[in-house]
Amino acid sequence: MSLVENRLQRAPRYRQVVREVTLGLARPVWVDDRDFDINFHIRRSGLPRPGGPADLAELVSRVMSRPLDRTRPLWEMYLIEGLADGRLAILTKSHRCLIDGPENPEISEVICDATDEPELLPEELWMPGSPPGSTSLVVGALAEAMARPGDLVETMVHGNGLVSEVRSVVGNTVRRIGDVVGQLTDSAPHSPLNNSGTTTRTFTTAYVSRRDCAKIAERHDCTVNDVELAIISGVMRKWMLSVDPAAVPADTVRVVVPLSPRDPGVEVDAAAEPGWIGVGKPSFVTDLPVGESNPTVRLAQVAGLAERYAQSSRRMTTGPSPLFPELGMVPFADISSRAFRSLDSRSYNVPVAMSTAPIAHRFVLGVPVREVFYIPVLVSQRALAVSVVEYGDRLQFAFIADRGVISDLPDMAEYVTESFEELLVTD
């Protein structure tokens, strides 16, 4: 707990709450939580010893099924004991509005170090600032509305008719949502994956060798990202056949994935340190050929479609990352993300969060972090979300699903291994 307290100065939003502006005249604002209690946010939990991956996954499922408390800073951290070999796990749950690039990192990144020598920041005496009064908030909102009338319209318009109404307001606003509209007019294939009837979650993980995936990519003249998507394609195909062995899988499953710096046409900053979590990155929609039974052909089709769609403005979006979907509210959603939420029920089947670069080894208080998994939270009308992290010599897959729709999610961990091995043995 002392480590988190010391590092919170690098994540100021984790001690703030969101305050609504009277009459909804402007976006909500950040204010310091005058009743901030770190003991509420950091919790200890234990597994029956010796806890295995299935026990940990079940605990994660329960935690992710519960909503965050909107009256407090929107995050929780769990120190999980009882794992085999005396290991510990740290689970963080953060609303996406807390995270906004390097200036506002996720709390798990803040507590980690790049070496086994912990960095101790100078002690900081934190005192909450005085909250702005209702009158000053309204006056400030009106001044902002006069300067940016498009934002005023955005805050007052709700519902699925937003895009058609806003397009006539200002040209700048139209440009912000244009790409999203173009993408969303191309409907995704009909799928039970576009279903979400409960708030109860189920979670599972799997990993494969990153070195072997790189060899597969080199052999087939594609990227590691393509191999990751090909593995997910194999997983989806096997799951569909397990649900109904007599059925022929649909031709494709449509996914939204982040645009990688390894994709064509994307500039790479060689001096940049890979971020712990990519937020605000552009994404694109592509199709996974789950109807193809040959794993080699499937990989070739994945690579070809991803290369083509990654360069298509029609398939691009600057909307919210699937890694941080809504956990109840999104205070700072811009017009593009609201359009994304209002129309996304027909744009794709599964959100896939992928690290855009390998993550170097991390340490917590000098102890090496052995595994890192992103836990994507389900968005509206989605039964499944997937993430892939390149950490050390592993590609680490995480799956979270609506338990009412996909009760056999742990099987997907086995499908990852099977799909990977199919690619590994291909010529």
From TrEMBL:
Reaction(s) this enzyme catalyzes, per UniProt: an acyl-CoA + a 1,2-diacyl-sn-glycerol = a triacyl-sn-glycerol + CoA
Highest taxon, organism lineage: Bacteria
All copies of domain O-acyltransferase WSD1 C-terminal, residue ranges: 285-423
Sorted UniProt keywords: Acyltransferase, Glycerol metabolism, Lipid biosynthesis, Lipid metabolism, Transferase
Recorded metabolic or biological pathway in which this protein acts: Lipid metabolism; Glycerolipid metabolism; triacylglycerol biosynthesis
GO molecular function term, any single one: diacylglycerol O-acyltransferase activity
Gene Ontology BP term (one): triglyceride biosynthetic process
GO cellular component: plasma membrane
Record's keyword annotation contains Transferase: yes
EC number(s) on file: 2.3.1.20
Signal peptide, first to last residue: none
Top-level EC class: transferase
Pfam families from the UniProt entry: WS_DGAT_C, WS_DGAT_cat
Keyword Iron recorded: no
Annotated ranges, domain O-acyltransferase WSD1-like N-terminal: 3-227
Family to which this protein belongs: Belongs to the long-chain O-acyltransferase family.
Official protein name in the record: diacylglycerol O-acyltransferase
Species in which this protein is naturally found: Gordonia westfalica
